[in-house]
Amino acid sequence: MRFGEETRRMVTETMIHSPAPALILFSHGSLVCGAARALEAHADFLRRSGDWSQVRIGWMNYDAPTFAEAVQITLENASIDTIVVVPYFLVPGRFVTHDLRNALAAAREAHPGVTFLEAAPLGTGADWLAPIAQLAAMASPLTAESRAATIAQVIAGCEGKPRCPLREDGLCSGEPRSPSTPVPSPRISPANAVPDDDRPSLLVLAHGSPREAANAAVHELAVLLRDSRQYAGVHTGFLDCAQPDIPTAAHAAAASDARSVVALPFFLHTGRHVILDVPDLLMGAATHHPNVEFHLAPFLGSSPALGEMLAVRALTALSQPK
User: Fold this and answer.
1) Domain range for residue 244?
2) What is the reported pLDDT for 165?
3) Model confidence at 67, in pLDDT bands (50, 70, 90)?
4) pLDDT band per the 50, 70, 90 thresholds, residue 87
5) By mean pLDDT, which of 100-104, 189-193, 227-231, 316-320 is the weakest?
6) Is the domain of 177 the same as that of 238?
7) What pLDDT, on the 0 to 100 scale, is given for residue 154?
8) With pLDDT > 90 as the criterion, what percentage of the chain qualifies?
9) Is 134 within 8 Å of 303 (Cβ atoms)?
10) How many domains does the chain contain in total?
11) Where are the alpha helices (DSSP H) in 233-320?
12) Of 164 and 67, more confident
């Protein structure tokens, strides 16, 4: 893991002089079956690190256990005096500054003998450059067949959630099945240099927020991606609340000199937006640019690098003076 020497020293001393702390990942839930699997995989990575007595996920809604329940289960299973809470969010929006803070206040009141440490959210900084390059290299052609295959993969892992949008849209019967874990095949090795004239244009697709600071963070990441010179161009598009919208951004990316456009869903979960909304909007835009190849990368939350990034946030919070 990429820690500064001083941070690692402080973390090591903390681990030695106190019982091993627990870690809770605080996240928004989803109505879509299987949406939690990526975060569960990151939690497994953190458990294997051996830094934590327990690693749990506490959900804000739609999934179980809730954050309060995750705290209760954690404290019932061991003698723990410190719990580090990492918000599984990109920016400190309302879910972090309001919902998480309220949940932490309630937890501190209910468990006065336990220290709760709040870590920083994942952010949109330079540590995303390598993971995004890896995801972009795993992009596959955007076609009706690929969209259907994605939906089929989700249906194959149906958990029977009554309000899953695939069920409501008549795409899934709602009959629970065994979880599936599809692994996308790399299309280009990110370790290999790509000739300038073959570099794709990158399209970063985010949800959008009423908070301009959250949208600005996505634009700032786009600047970092442009400066990396790995792409012929970098464009941002938003599903809601901000401009440009996804069709406008897709048209701008296709109008550049790049032969192909790689769209990256900047989402942490496989909700309705990743499975249905983003592919549909992109396919609509692609029909206007028959000479440009559109590819869709795996969503941001599927990056294997996220486990390490969460560990950095958690251990940094643990190293701070109490």
Assistant:
1) 126-302
2) 84
3) very high
4) very high
5) 189-193
6) yes
7) 79
8) 66
9) yes
10) 2
11) 246-254, 272, 278-286, 306-319
12) 67
Write out the two tokens for 297. 């990368």
Distances 2 to 25, 79, 312 between C-alpha atoms, Å? 20, 30, 7
One domain, residues 144 and 70: no
CATH number, position 16: 3.40.50.1400
Domain co-membership, 144 together with 106: no
Q: Check whether residue 152 and residue 119 sit in a common domain.
A: no
Cis peptide before 65 (omega within 30 of 0): yes
d(CA 287, CA 279): 12
- Separation of first and last alpha carbons in the chain: 23
The reply to whether the predicted model has a pTM over 0.90 is: no
Identify the three-state secondary structure at position 260: strand
Does 147 lie in the same domain as 65?
no
Of 51, 48, 67, the closest CA to residue 19 belongs to 51
| One domain, residues 83 and 187 | no
How far is the CA of 111 from the CAs of 64, 75, 83, 104, in angstroms?
20, 9, 11, 10
Torsion of CA 107, 109, 114, 116, to 10 degrees: 50
- Phi, psi (deg, nearest 5) at residue 311: -65, -40
The number of residues making up the chain comes to 322
Task: Give backbone dihedrals phi and psi of 39, rounded to 5 degrees, phi first.
Answer: -65, -35
Statement to judge: residues 61 and 157 lie in one domain: no
| Whether 185 and 46 share a structural domain | no
What is the structure's pLDDT at 293? 94
Element (H, E) at 116: strand 115-118
Indicate the pairing of strand 260-265 with strand 293-296. parallel
